[in-house]
TrEMBL record, chain A:
Organism in which the protein naturally occurs: Enhygromyxa salina
Gene name for this UniProt entry: purL_1
GO cellular component: cytoplasm
Alphabetical list of SMART domains matching this protein: GATase_5
Protein name: Phosphoribosylformylglycinamidine synthase
GO molecular function per UniProt: phosphoribosylformylglycinamidine synthase activity
Keywords (A to Z) from UniProt: Ligase
UniProtKB/TrEMBL annotation, chain B:
Pathway: Purine metabolism; IMP biosynthesis via de novo pathway; 5-amino-1-(5-phospho-D-ribosyl)imidazole from N(2)-formyl-N(1)-(5-phospho-D-ribosyl)glycinamide: step 1/2
Known role: Part of the phosphoribosylformylglycinamidine synthase complex involved in the purines biosynthetic pathway. Catalyzes the ATP-dependent conversion of formylglycinamide ribonucleotide (FGAR) and glutamine to yield formylglycinamidine ribonucleotide (FGAM) and glutamate. The FGAM synthase complex is composed of three subunits. PurQ produces an ammonia molecule by converting glutamine to glutamate. PurL transfers the ammonia molecule to FGAR to form FGAM in an ATP-dependent manner.
Binding site for Mg(2+) 1: E312
Keywords linked to the UniProt accession: ATP-binding, Cytoplasm, Ligase, Magnesium, Metal-binding, Nucleotide-binding, Purine biosynthesis
Chain residues that bind Mg(2+) 2: D336, D505
Protein source organism: Enhygromyxa salina
Active site: H233, H314 (proton acceptor)
GO terms (BP aspect): 'de novo' IMP biosynthetic process
Name the record gives this protein: Phosphoribosylformylglycinamidine synthase subunit PurL
Domain of life: Bacteria
E.C. code: 6.3.5.3
Record-annotated PurM-like C-terminal domain positions: 440-592, 834-980
Family membership noted in the UniProt record: Belongs to the FGAMS family.
Length: 295, 1006
């Protein structure tokens, strides 16, 4: 595993010294559990990752200052008791809510995978401000939710997602198909009303959708693991800097993570790294650009 | 204090997946079809909130987009003019309610102040169009477990129910004296039986004598502490005692040192000596780092990390409460691997279950749950425990036999990566080796994690007796993965800051065992139970001492680090309590405030148990030689088989059918390290020969896992079973790419009671089976150079219910852990390209005794007895070494073992995985005067590998492996079908679609 080669392939245009100066924060604890692979996703690309226990962040929201990327990781925060992400989202809302909204308003990037996405949705960070009345520096009300899969229960299987080329999402820019494991019991994305759905569609705020083997958007199991309408697998905010999705691109860091890696290599298709890394490379690219604009 | 009741349900129009899943189960399992069914989450808040605060908590808990909720009750709507019946299912007092705990936390976050009291969770089912009698049946057979849950069935409209299952009592704290001195044998036996002590008469006499010498009677806590520590579960007496063994000819021998020292540990010592002699390891870097004395075995891996592995069973609790018992199994073994040395980082889990037949439709003895329900609960428990802990699984298997209906076997194991060294005390000074616990006199005894309740009292002694109607409710614990996860996040931080000097799990026997064991490091310990945190008041000191309430570790913390340790615990919301300190006065001293509770000499506690010589006599059910003509009769029966139909029927048998439906509910990819996943192939439904996983990010070394388990071979000969288990586990990891010189194994024995008694008249035979099993295990491990680094035995797997005794077949599980340096070189069973050549490596004999085919044919026209697979260990090991050379030279393109179901099953897996074809000729294997096609395809002879290579490499491969039983079978085609001929006559012709249809159907919907 040569991480320098991976960086040079995926983000050749970025100066390693510039990358190393970015602060990527990964909050941990309370039953979250994807800290190792999420940290590795950024580290393999040459960024430094600051893992911080959520308790430390709640006690000192000032630690968000200067952070370029905030990653909400997967896991089972508080066991997903009551509903996935609910107890954790409440704790963040009560103690960190406005600081998070200001972080986003000030140009910060954020990504959430699985439980991280569920938390962002229940926190109002996604889809984020929609209406003119929504203040940019306050958390928006919860307007979407992620509920139990149509087929009850947790399931671990790989899915394919197609990226919307017209989406403002910086994390999926230039990507067509993303493959990742899907590992959840509550992943069906529902919206408060049709008006919101129409607005999100119009603004291309659903950057990733489940597709079948032919590449067509799917509402049918198993291509769509949860029955999400329109195959919606994630959401982004208006700026495109804040993105969350149910599947786990951070579990596709090495070519060998893919279930068909051997067959693909035999067919001459061996990228030498996991294709999930491209999502994180995009994030770092956008963060460096943002930093250059407002040093 | 006012109790507030909250009811929450899905918004109209949104689905109710729990109701839908329940409806499907009711229909397929119980043939019940309600017109409609809804579910609600119900929370009772006994937290001292006022009404306005309760409203705020409700608003914070209800999803504004997806749910509706009410303080009090939601309306129960009419359907077709009919009101529903409401079934409420919640926990009994004192049962772990993890959801309730999270709700209480959420309420405190919401109102912004600390709250005193509890929250309780329950589920409400609303049934329309089902008679109350039918709902009661649904409750009994599916929705309610009376051992841990309370229920209430009432018609709507309902009365507001604000009752909560509050636990505890205000009984005064009392230490009783047990009048042992002067009692006769009958009284001593009665004291043991009535107290659920599981102490034999000899043990009771030893305790009596000890206290007579002291001139006093023991306290209740002392007797309990001895009973836990001396339990079969903790002390492994059957493995420690000398055994007199008599073979069928009357020849006698004595295993003086007992089975553990004489075979298990002896095998590891022999392997260690071989390695030293051969110079296999550098002097300061031996393969075996820590074996047999800690919570799990430790072997060397890289310069940065060791590997830790432990596999446990949790059979008895899983029989009573499959969900809670099995969950405790997985989170418990997590603590074992985590708590080895100064702490390891958990990497991956394994599971394996032996159940009664889930398709059983006959009568069951009273008190026994249907195997289907046990299976369902066990899966869910381990799924929730593993997934919520953020640990993927690598290996998982299920086996079925009617003899597992009394006690299921629930194996759970965990591999961890242990950093070779961690920071010194207080994070200063030189790093120290992680596998050593540098405890010192004066270090504090600190209990960390969950609180103590009556759960799990007598777990250790309970699992040391058979299951019967009087089995205690409290013996069941329920795990809480989140409390545990928060605990080990904290402990990992504390380890990396050097804040403690030792730790162990509070498992069987609770504090009595954990402190009692750790006390051996310094030579004593002193604790005060009055400061121990309790879940509820009213526990007697002896109960506090032996409770097996979960999610607790006992730590040794040096005084200099104590403040930092406690402060970090508080910041991480983990309860940590100083109970006492480690001493060197040779005693385990327990007080409750000023009251003396227990004062036992460590030597008596740990060495005082009497170990009388046990009696074993082998009484093979069949003559050891196969009856004359048996082979001939078997040959005729085999020749008459329609092989296409036989292979399809085998694939649909529960032991061989697809279980991906269940297995995919277990996370196998969290941590992002998987390489060869547990399920492989184009459709991800074929079990991998062995799994491969990276151990650390950005590194290429991997851990390779597999196992061998063949309970049916034990019916013929447990020696053959043990050899087959080691052989298959080792063969599997070698197929996937494991280094030949870094393989280790774990032994898990699950046995029916092997001590002769009125209830077990055949105890001597069962003990002889155990001896022979140990002999086979020793022989195989030494021949293959595979040390046993950890293990466990569970010796009382019998159920005695309603006058019916059900005993499991003697079962050995051998779990194998291998290593590789570059995971990109790993192989699977999947053929890779059309035109590749297919070979069988290894000898095939007429060995169908204990085979899947034999079981399938049992009944009307059974197969005549043939031999059980024997394993020529030396020949096999030479073969594997030669195979590994070819593999490492890059000549092997895919490799798979022949195991249960023989060659036919291996070939079927290959076709299912790749959906390529295999065009084979069996002439090299079978033919006139030799094996029939059926025997060649279905015999379960051990030591065999099916492999593929390119056509170009075939000559070299034949040259190098020819002497090791290499047989050319044919080639890989693009037909997608498995075809095999013998003497130009077609024997098998099956497409992958035909194979898959039967394979997927076997366990479907169960």
């Amino acid at each position: 595993m040569d991480s320098e080669a991976v960086r040079a392939r995926l983000i050749p245009e970025l100066d390693p010294r510039e990358l190393a100066q970015l602060r990527v924060m990964v909050p941990t604890g309370y039953g979250l559990n994807c800290e190792a692979e999420t940290s590795a996703a950024f580290e393999l690309l040459g960024a430094e990752v600051e893992r911080v226990h959520v308790a430390e962040l709640l006690d000192d929201p000032g630690r968000l200052a200067g952070v370029a990327i905030l990653a909400f990781i997967g896991g089972f925060s508080f066991g997903d008791h009551v509903a996935s992400g609910r107890v954790f989202a409440n704790r963040l809302r009560f103690r960190l809510g406005d600081a998070l909204a200001r972080y986003v308003a000030d140009g910060g990037l954020a990504i959430g995978m699985c439980n991280g996405f569920q938390v962002m949705v229940k926190l109002g960070l996604l889809p984020g401000p929609l209406l003119a009345a929504d203040a940019a520096d306050r958390l928006a009300p919860q307007r979407a939710s992620v509920v139990g899969n149509d087929r009850l229960g947790y399931r671990n299987a790989w899915v394919r997602m197609r990226c919307d080329p017209e989406s403002p999402c910086v994390w999926t820019r230039g990507l067509d198909i993303i493959e990742s494991p899907s590992r959840h019991g509550e992943g069906k994305l529902v919206l408060a009303d049709d008006e919101i759905r129409a607005q999100l569609e119009a603004e291309h705020r659903v950057p990733v959708r489940y597709v079948d083997e032919q590449g067509a958007v799917s509402e049918a199991w198993p291509a769509n693991p949860n029955g999400s309408p329109g195959g919606a697998a994630g959401l982004c905010d208006r700026s495109g800097r804040v993105f969350g999705l149910m599947p786990h691109p951070e579990a596709f860091l090495y070519a060998e993570n893919h279930p068909r890696w051997r067959a693909r290599a035999d067919a001459g298709d061996s990228p030498g790294h996991g294709l999930g890394l491209r999502v994180f490379a995009n994030g770092l690219r956008a963060a460096v650009t943002a930093r250059r604009k407002s040093p | 204090m006012t109790v507030h009741r909250l009811e929450i349900e899905a918004q109209p129009g949104l689905g109710d997946p729990l109701a839908e899943a329940t409806r499907r189960r009711l229909e397929t399992w119980l043939d019940l079809r309600p017109q409609a069914l809804r579910t609600r989450k119900v929370y009772h808040l006994d937290l001292g909130l006022d009404d306005a605060e309760a409203e705020r908590v409700l608003a914070a808990l209800v999803d504004p987009v997806a749910e509706i909720g009410a303080l009090g009750m939601l309306d129960d709507p009419e359907r077709d003019g009919e009101r529903p019946w409401a079934l409420s299912v919640g926990f009994l007092p004192g049962v772990t309610d993890a959801v309730g705990r999270s709700v209480a936390r959420a309420a405190a976050d919401c109102v912004g102040r600390a709250l005193v009291g509890r929250a309780y969770s329950s589920t409400l089912y609303l049934f329309w169009g089902l008679e109350p009698e039918a709902i009661e049946r649904a409750a009994r057979d599916l929705l309610h477990n009376s051992l841990i849950e309370r229920m209430k069935l009432e018609p709507s409209p309902r009365a507001l129910d604000r009752s909560v299952p509050e636990a505890g009592s205000s009984a005064p704290v009392e230490v009783r004296t047990v009048a042992l001195r002067g009692q006769g044998d009958a009284e001593l036996e009665a004291i043991s039986r009535e107290g659920m002590l599981a102490l034999s008469l000899a043990e009771m006499r030893a305790i009596q004598a000890h206290f007579e010498a002291l001139g006093r009677d023991p306290t209740d806590a002392e007797v309990e502490c001895l009973a836990q520590t001396w339990s079969e579960h903790c002390k492994h007496k059957i493995f420690a005692s000398p055994i007199r063994y008599v073979d069928p000819e009357g020849v006698e021998r004595v295993v003086e040192r007992g089975l553990f020292r004489g075979y298990v540990r002896a095998a590891t010592e022999a392997v260690a000596a071989q390695r030293r002699e051969a110079g296999s390891d550098p002097v300061d870097a031996e393969f075996l780092v820590s074996v047999f004395h800690d919570n799990a075995g430790v072997v060397r891996f890289t310069e940065a990390d060791h590997l830790v592995y432990k596999v446990e069973t949790h059979n008895s609790p899983s029989a009573l409460d499959p969900y809670g018992g099995a969950m405790t199994g997985i989170v418990g073994v997590n603590r074992d691997s985590f708590g080895t040395g100064l702490g390891a980082d958990l990497l991956t889990n394994v599971w394996g279950y032996c159940f009664g037949d889930p398709r059983w439709d006959g009568e069951l003895p009273p008190g026994l749950m249907h195997p289907r329900r046990i299976r369902d609960g066990v899966h869910h428990g381990v799924i929730d425990g593993g997934n919520q802990s953020g640990i993927p699984y690598s290996r998982g298997f299920e086996l079925f036999d009617a003899r597992y209906a009394g006690k299921p076997l629930v194996y759970c194991g965990t591999v961890a990566a242990m950093p070779v060294s961690v920071p010194g005390p207080g994070g200063e000074g030189p790093p120290r080796p992680t596998h050593v616990k540098p405890m010192k006199v004066g270090d504090k005894v600190v209990m960390v994690g969950g609180r103590i309740g009556k759960d799990g009292i007598h777990g250790a002694t309970f699992s040391s007796v058979e299951l019967d109607e009087s089995s205690p409710v409290q013996a069941v614990q329920i795990g809480d993965p989140i409390t545990q996860r928060m605990m080990w996040d904290f402990l990992t931080e504390a380890r990396d800051r050097g804040l403690y000097s030792g730790m162990t799990d509070n498992g069987a026997g609770g504090l009595s065992s954990s402190v009692g064991e750790m006390a051996e490091a310094t030579g004593g310990a002193r604790i005060d139970l009055a400061v121990a945190p309790l879940k509820y008041p009213g526990l007697a000191p002896w109960e506090i001492l032996i409770s097996e309430a979960q999610e607790r570790m006992t730590l040794a913390v040096p005084p200099a680090q104590l403040d930092a340790f406690l402060a970090l615990a508080e910041r991480r919301e983990v309860e940590a309590t100083v109970l006492g300190e480690f001493t060197d006065d040779g005693r385990f001293v327990v007080r409750y405030g000023e009251t003396a509770v227990c004062e036992l000499g460590l030597e008596f506690l740990h060495e005082g148990v009497p170990l009388p010589t046990l009696e074993a006599r082998w009484d093979p059910p069949q003559p050891p030689d196969i009856p004359a003509g048996g082979a001939e009769a078997a040959r005729e029966r085999l020749a008459a088989l329609d092989l296409n139909a036989t292979i399809l029927a085998l694939l649909g048998r529960p032991n061989l059918a697809a279980n991906d439906d269940r297995a995919r509910a277990y996370d196998h990819e969290v941590k992002g390290l998987s390489v060869v996943k547990p399920l492989i192939g184009l459709r991800g439904d074929v079990p991998a020969t062995a799994t491969v996983m990276r151990v650390r990010h950005a590194r290429d070394e991997g851990v390779v896992l597999a196992e061998g388990i063949h309970p049916w071979y034990s019916d013929l000969d447990t020696d053959a079973m043990a050899r087959a288990c080691v052989d298959e586990g080792v063969r599997r990891v070698l197929c996937a790419g494991a280094r030949v010189d870094r393989i280790a194994a774990l032994d898990n024995f699950c046995w029916p009671d092997p001590i002769e008694s009125a209830k077990t008249p055949d105890g001597r035979h069962k003990l002889a089976q155990l001896v022979r099993c140990c002999e086979g295990l020793y022989a195989a491990c030494v021949a293959y150079g595979v040390p046993l680094i950890s293990g466990k035995d569970s010796m009382k797997n019998d159920a005695f219910l309603g006058g019916v005794k059900i005993s499991i077949p003697p079962t050995l599980l051998v779990s194998v852990i291998g290593q590789m340096t570059a995971v990109g070189r790993s192989l699977t069973l999947e053929p890779r390209a059309v035109g590749d050549r297919v070979y069988l490596l290894g000898d095939t004999a007429l060995e169908l005794g204990g085979s899947e085919l034999e079981r399938m044919l049992a009944g009307a026209e059974p197969l005549a007895q043939t031999d059980v697979p024997r394993t020529d260990l030396d020949r096999c090991w030479a073969r594997y070494r030669a195979f590994v050379e070819q593999r490492d030279a890059g000549r092997v393109r895919s490799a798979h073992v022949c195991g249960r179901g023989g060659l036919a099953l291996a070939l079927s897996h290959m076709v299912l995985a790749a959906e390529l074809g295999l065009e084979l000729e069996l002439d090299g294997l079978a033919g006139p005067g030799g094996l029939s096609a059926a025997a060649a395809l279905l015999s379960e002879s051990t030591g065999r590998i099916v492999l593929t290579c390119t056509e170009a490499d075939a000559p070299a491969l034949e040259q190098e492996l020819g002497a090791h039983g290499l047989v050319a079978l044919g080639r890989v085609t693009d037909s997608g079908a498995l075809t095999a001929s013998l003497g130009a006559r077609s024997q098998v012709s099956l497409t992958h679609a035909q194979l898959r249809a039967r394979y997927e159907e076997g366990l479907h919907g169960l």
